[in-house]
Amino acid sequence: MMSSNTASSSAGVAGSADSAAPRRNSKKPKYSRFTQQELPACKPILTPRWVISAFLLVSVVFIPIGVASLFASRDVVEIVDRYETECIPLEKRNDTVNYIQTPGDKPCNRTITVPKRMKQPIYVYYQLDNFYQNHRRYVKSRSDAQLRKNSSASDTSTCKPEDTVNGSASLPIVPCGLIAWSLFNDTYSFSRNNSKLTVNKEGISWKSDRDHKFGSDVYPTNFQANGTLIGGASLNSSIPLSKQEDLIVWMRTAALPTFRKLYGKIEVDLEPNDVISVTLQNNYNTYSFKGKKKLVLSTTSWLGGKNDFLGIAYLTVGGLCFFLALVFTLVYLVKPRRLGDPSYLSWNRNPGGR
């Protein structure tokens, strides 16, 4: 009888010890100030003085930046000449698509007057409107591997429909794809007082593109040879792609339907009222999709090209902040409110309710 009670007592002690032991499978995380969000933190109280000071600080910083940006943009001299309609003969303007698709030269003479002194270098751009280079099928129609290495010349699986000549796998097009096929092919030449102005076309593309994306051992092959419909310019088959900078510039597709691409640089100063004669070849077909073509001559500033948006944006934000600071100051002076005790804002001031 005694042994039975002893056994029962022992079992009870063991049971109580087991219940008192910590549960090993508990998912409760180990306590730390980080997991419990008890680390020291800056908790600013937005009093009227702090808010007014913050708005004034933003306005004091933004307004001078906006003024400087706007003056820099206004210092840029830019000449824009739209020519896609004027360079079509009057008798052909009712059928512009048929005119532009007819083989042969299509010369056009334009005259530009320089409004202000333009310091070198003067950048020559062509601008296209309503041309969606960001179309998904258009953007994907290229082979980066083929552009980099001559050994990948047959890698044209992503270039359809401009992948091979007449569907023959033994005649791959290099460079393949719709982007290269539609290469811009209008040309420009400039003269002043019957003296030719040289356009420097070296260094107009990104150096990283020339060095890493277009191979020095890759040469154009079977380009613009797929049928009778020619998409754009032809390429010199004796010059590697890394040296064909017009192509490299064109292959960097634009994100918006209106874009400019660099054609070259004029490295002499142009004086006010200089008359520039432009002889261009109007070859590129923008008439099928009602696109526009413009010739742009522009200087640059420390901020880049002519763009008033940045300066206007800074002035708008700075002016708005100054206006709000003024309003809040008047409200604070005319009808002030007594602030409460900020110590009540601490929700965990007494942890555990103690």
Automatic annotation (TrEMBL):
<feature type="compositionally biased region" description="Polar residues">
    <location>
        <begin position="148"/>
        <end position="164"/>
    </location>
</feature>
<keyword id="KW-0812">Transmembrane</keyword>
<dbReference type="Pfam" id="PF03381">
    <property type="entry name" value="CDC50"/>
</dbReference>
<comment type="similarity">
    <text>Belongs to the CDC50/LEM3 family.</text>
</comment>
<dbReference type="GO" id="GO:0005886">
    <property type="term" value="C:plasma membrane"/>
</dbReference>
<keyword id="KW-1133">Transmembrane helix</keyword>
<keyword id="KW-0472">Membrane</keyword>
<dbReference type="GO" id="GO:0005794">
    <property type="term" value="C:Golgi apparatus"/>
</dbReference>
<dbReference type="InterPro" id="IPR005045">
    <property type="entry name" value="CDC50/LEM3_fam"/>
</dbReference>
<feature type="region of interest" description="Disordered">
    <location>
        <begin position="1"/>
        <end position="33"/>
    </location>
</feature>
<feature type="transmembrane region" description="Helical">
    <location>
        <begin position="312"/>
        <end position="334"/>
    </location>
</feature>
<dbReference type="GO" id="GO:0005783">
    <property type="term" value="C:endoplasmic reticulum"/>
</dbReference>
<feature type="region of interest" description="Disordered">
    <location>
        <begin position="143"/>
        <end position="164"/>
    </location>
</feature>
<feature type="compositionally biased region" description="Low complexity">
    <location>
        <begin position="1"/>
        <end position="20"/>
    </location>
</feature>
<protein>
    <recommendedName>
        <fullName>ALA-interacting subunit</fullName>
    </recommendedName>
</protein>
<feature type="transmembrane region" description="Helical">
    <location>
        <begin position="50"/>
        <end position="72"/>
    </location>
</feature>
